[in-house]
Amino acid sequence: MNWIPYSQFKDVKEMTKGGYGIIHKATWLSNNETVILERFENSINGSNHFLNELKSYQRCFDESLRAHIIKIYGFTRDPESEDYILVIKYASEGLTKEL
């Protein structure tokens, strides 16, 4: 899991809101790649949703499951809200094509 500076993302556009945060689509400059940014609202104030997501990902990350899980490249932090954000591979064909 790598730290990625928020300045590495451009064209950040909101896609949808969920129970714990907001999903954005963005361009990752250093990789010239479209990614998903999953922002966990109020994570700066002790919300456990971000940490729970990381723990869930870690538990599923073994050799037998690796090909079936969308890759998480790392995490960053929104400079304005200070919320934590997961940086996730963009499934351009939708999730069913990735699974």
UniProtKB/TrEMBL annotation:
<protein>
    <recommendedName>
        <fullName>Protein kinase domain-containing protein</fullName>
    </recommendedName>
</protein>
<dbReference type="InterPro" id="IPR000719">
    <property type="entry name" value="Prot_kinase_dom"/>
</dbReference>
<feature type="domain" description="Protein kinase">
    <location>
        <begin position="9"/>
        <end position="99"/>
    </location>
</feature>
<dbReference type="GO" id="GO:0005524">
    <property type="term" value="F:ATP binding"/>
</dbReference>
<dbReference type="GO" id="GO:0004672">
    <property type="term" value="F:protein kinase activity"/>
</dbReference>
<dbReference type="InterPro" id="IPR011009">
    <property type="entry name" value="Kinase-like_dom_sf"/>
</dbReference>
